[in-house]
Amino acid sequence: MNLPANLLDSHHVDPPASAAPHLQPRAGLEHRELRRDEFWRTIPVWAQVSAAEFGNHQWQQRHTVTNARQLRETLGTLVPETFYADLEAGIAHAPMALRISPYLLALADWAAPLTDPIRSQFLPLRSQQEPDHPMLRFDSLNEREDSPVPGLTHRYPDKALFLPQPSCPVYCRFCTRSYAVGGDTEVVEKMKLSAGATRWDAAFAYIESQPQLEDIVISGGDTYNLKAEHIEQIGRRLLAMPNIRRIRYATKGLCVLPQKILTDSAWLDALTRVVELGRTLHKDVVVHSHFNHPNEITGFTEDALGRMTERGIHVRCQTVLQRGVNDTAAAMTLLVRRLSYINVHPYYVYVHDMVPGVEDLRTPLHVAQKIERHVRGATAGFNTPTFVLDAPGGGGKRDVHTPDYYNRQTGVSAFTAPSVKAGKKFLFFDPVTSLDDETQWRWTQPSHRRAMIDEAAGI
Description:
Order of helices and strands: HHHHHHHEEHEHEHHHEHEHEHEEEEEHH
Shape: globular
Oligomer: single chain
CATH architecture of the largest domain: Alpha-Beta Barrel
CATH topology of the largest domain: TIM Barrel
Structural class: alpha/beta
Largest sheet: 9 strands, mixed
Number of domains: 3
């Protein structure tokens, strides 16, 4: 037998192959590099604030900025006067009130505020706002139409959305519930959604009356703004129902105010007790969070998630795809890896909902499709989020790769949802500014607009 030369010597061992270029030791480790410096000291008024103060949730809440005057007092000359004028004009045309935590303000890059991904999500600039697509409307998901009692949306057969109160620790420009969340603005008079036992009892009574309901999302507003006793009261009430198997507390707080997990022991203890009760009942209680950019994740976040991991609290993330924030494969991949690193499960990436006043943040459907292809394979499958479009009109979440119709020329796509609302088509519209000049003009003409819509609807 003629053996290959390298097998003739039984002691021969080939040297270990070097890693492929894309798998070199430092490649792909950026997601572990979390800020632990005292970054807030770059803000003049906080230059002398200690780590203990900045890390306290009550200090954060006391120094939350809610108007342009407070922002000017906070940032001073870090930005020019033209920025403040631009902001004030933007606020006058925004559907959401201004509310932003010191933590987020300190993380923003004030040397380049026009392009900073954190600033873009919370502070509207008039110079960047774009005219709304003619098909945009408030409550684009038809949550009120699918509401059997105030503050409860029942769309999917076995799942309902419970909104116990309407406020949040910060207000996102892109909020899908801009029709109800936060205070009135110059362009929106909000639907009143008061917190109170009477309304809650009506919601609980409905949930108990629907044996097919098994899954309840508690949102708002934001569950971060529920008192500790209410976190526990709502959780225990739902877990006591024989039909309920799963509860999800929805909050953006882990992203915008992680200090609460670290310093509000009463709130975290209340949540922990609900999670532990669920475990004894063989029911699932989890937290749904909301991170949109890798810069939002710091040492504070890692410490907060570490504490939740120690207590057996599982956290998932629902991200919103936004132009100029995370609409690149690099930004989204880094976000997914960084979330996984701090034990947050990347669950969904949503195409921006069709709500008015934030057209500058919306992306075309094909951008979501492209980014999903790049993200898939960048990490383990179970840590890869599903990219979805929440179909306007109440069609529910549809995979971005599953439109029944998509005309990139007109920017119109059509989805069906047989298990949610059979026999109906749900239309989504790409931002007008993403289309060519001729098509943009066509959208200004009612007859052309009708023709493009009818084609998508198959009429």
